[in-house]
């Protein structure tokens, strides 16, 4: 059986969308291994409102 407790669910939110002032938000839900990556995630993902790839950061 697999061990439990290392992977946690995190929410990624677009940084450019907040600064642009356009209504709505772009958020993704993913998992990360908190043992390997203790700091916050920063991934490039597609923003459907802005219609381009932007940087999404982990929020708490």
TrEMBL record:
> InterPro entries given for it?
Ribosomal_bL33, Ribosomal_bL33_sf, Ribosomal_zn-bd
- List UniProt keywords, sorted A-Z: Ribonucleoprotein, Ribosomal protein
| Descriptive protein name | Large ribosomal subunit protein bL33
Q: Which GO terms describe its biological process?
A: translation
GO molecular-function term, one example from the UniProt record: structural constituent of ribosome
> Which protein family is named in the record?
Belongs to the bacterial ribosomal protein bL33 family.
Q: Which organism is it from?
A: Flavobacterium seoulense
One cellular component term from this protein's GO annotations in UniProt: ribonucleoprotein complex
Query: What is the gene name?
Result: rpmG
Please name the NCBIfam families in this protein's record. PRK00504.1, PRK00595.1, rpmG_bact
């Amino acid at each position: 059986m697999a061990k439990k407790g290392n992977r946690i669910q995190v929410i990624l939110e677009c940084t450019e969308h907040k600064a642009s002032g356009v209504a709505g938000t772009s958020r993704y839900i993913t998992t990360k291994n908190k043992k390997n990556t203790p700091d916050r995630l920063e991934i490039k993902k597609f923003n459907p409102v802005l219609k381009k790839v932007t940087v999404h950061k982990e929020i708490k």
